Amino acid sequence: MLIKAILINLLLLAIYCTLIITGSAASDRGFSMAIGGGICIALQVGLNAFSGLIMLAMGKRQFAIALLISAGVVAGVGFVSWLILLSIYG
Asked: In the 8-state DSSP scheme, what is residue 27?
């Protein structure tokens, strides 16, 4: 369950970044990456943490742990990839 949650979240992060890069003009990529990437990462981490807390309240401990760990992984990986893409396109 944990591996599936992490892989799905990292796949979504890659899709977000690809859509931001392909959907913006070359002159606006730095700004789009800074704003769009930051918002996408924050939303994804927030939703994972919220879902994990809801699952914990419902008594499904395994799902809660998987979602909370996934939120932590996405926060770290997302922030580093956001900085790398920002340095490339910014």
From this structure: G
